[in-house]
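Regression check, oxa(dethia)-CoA case 321:
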Amino acid sequence: MSIRIIGTGSALPERCVTNDDLAKLMDTSDEWIRERTGIGSRYLSTGETVAYLAGKACERALENAGKEAEEVELLLAATCSPEMALPCTACQIQAQIGAGGAAAFDLNAACAGFLFALHTAYAYIEAGIYKNALIVGAEVLSKLMDWTDRGTCILFGDGAGAVFVEKCGESGILGFSQHSDGARGGVLSCAARGLHNPYFKDASEGGFVRMDGREVFAFAVRQVPAAISEALEKARLRPEDVDLYVLHQANKRIIEGIAKRLGVGPEKFPINLDRVGNTSSAAIPLLLDELNGAGRLRRGMTVALSGFGAGLTYGACVLKW
Ligand code: UT7
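Current build output:
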């Protein structure tokens, strides 16, 4: 038994912000951002919430799969930028789309969140607990950015991507890996609201994303190829057997570095970060939906997904489309 992705969907805010737009707000340039990251523009919320974008992406994934919301048994939302601490984003989506029969909860593994959620759904379905799952990665990270820190705020975009998966008889997921390295969590962090109770008062209202970009870069180029190799080994496949590598879209140079380490040509590594930036947990399903819509994902293809981010968290999944 395994699972197969049978539908994809995505949603972006309306407002597209180019590098030139940002250069009007801070000391940066289109040339610097493109050269160092590959990013040309990103979409930023002007009111769209994580739950709204996630709900839209979920509706589109269900439509693409030819399924009704009432059929969903498990609804997992991966996000690190929810509007509400309670109820969780997955429950808000459930109400929005009418998936009343689903068990719904959130999962936060930052930019690896969608991948970890996919593995969670796989485990539930493989165990026979549920037959299908709707999995969404959604972020409005722009609210967590320090817009005076040009080293981080230029990287991220808002958006959502979703997939519908269901039990399948043949091989779907061929191998996966997932890891966390909490001891190195300080290189990419964001503080939540401080402690405030009758016995202790911490006035902190929460912080902004802080990042050591060089450390994160080095971590990604080293650990992601290792995580992909581990998943490939479990699948008894070689890097060249994979038709498409759908990686977390953080930086074009990171993706090129990973391709080089795996010894695979860059043409197998589709990119959309030039248009949408780094959308954290939404990045992988957003790109999957674009590829699906463009007819670049055909049944029987071998696809490798890989995500990495704050935590530090990282992993990979090799599957038959
Ligand atoms: O999902 C995971 C999320 N995290 C990541 O993807 C981060 C991975 N890391 C990176 O992508 C890169 O480290 C960055 C793109 C963030 C930065 O590139 P870098 O080559 O590591 O640059 P740097 O931070 O070492 O900065 C080099 C110079 C500095 O100026 P000086 O000190 O050399 O004069 C920065 O102040 O570039 C300057 N700089 C900028 N200049 C123009 C930093 N940000 C900007 C900017 N525009 N936006």
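Comparison notes: Residues 213-234 form the longest helix (22 residues). The CA atoms of residues 84 and 92 lie 9 Å apart. No diff flagged against the previous build.
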